What we know:
By secondary structure, the chain is α+β, with helices and mostly antiparallel strands. 38% of the residues lie in helices and 15% in strands.
Amino acid sequence: GVQTCSFRSEYANFIKQASQGCKSLNGIPVRNFRLILSLKCESKISLDILSVIEQTLSSAGFCPRRWQENDLLAWCQQVFNGYQTAPTSVDHTRPLREQVIQADTEILIQKDSVQIGDRYARCLTPKRLGKTINKEQSNRLFGGIMGPLDDSKQLKTPFLYSLNILFDDLSFDIHKKASMTMAMRAAGSFAIALQRRIDEYCWTLDALADQETFVKVIPSLWLFGEREEQVRDSSARTIQLRKTEADIELQSETLLRAPLLVASLPLGLYDLSGNINLLQRHFIIPSSTVAVLIP
């Protein structure tokens, strides 16, 4: 009995220390990956649709588990108040959003980063996506996939990747932008870029004619660290490596950090009063290629 307790204690300490980085793995930390799928709709989603979604996830090799309100509140409280935050019960007389941040938690929106309690965070968003990005390149956004050869290319700080997918009828907007672009005239070097843009819209219009649907996606990557210098270094490495490895040009957000932080949380994005167009961080892509951007 004593040896068993000692073994468990040593194993727990090893996992806790490894979460800060393993020496034998070039400082790569041990992580607990969780995939959170949240659905938002103007009308109430039926239980039949939820069951179909769960069955689809199960057939893909996942083990989905429905979150209750206590689970969502506990996760959000850990993000804003720290990992050691004791879970609290839900107060049904107040909205959940008013119960996440504790009174003693300090949140500062600084010039280069966001301070959330005792941690710092930076937000990276794609400035452009590669012309022929594939699933392997997308996965390289979170680090190399070639084992020990790619140890130096891993993300060594905690991160949160969010992909908001908005399903709406975009045919009118696409036709409007296509008409405006095709009516433009240009000369010189700008004519080449304009012709390339016109070719893209011609392909898009052909896809619409073939009943292809298009959606808006808003990808964002949040990096966390205990020190501001740690987050700054991780951000710089991520931007440089992903540009060469994944053909994705990332940019560090400044003015839009606060709304993007809320939008990156489960059920945090609100498409009201033109919020999406105001942020201008979305891409319009065919629904058949959305899976490439999903982790």
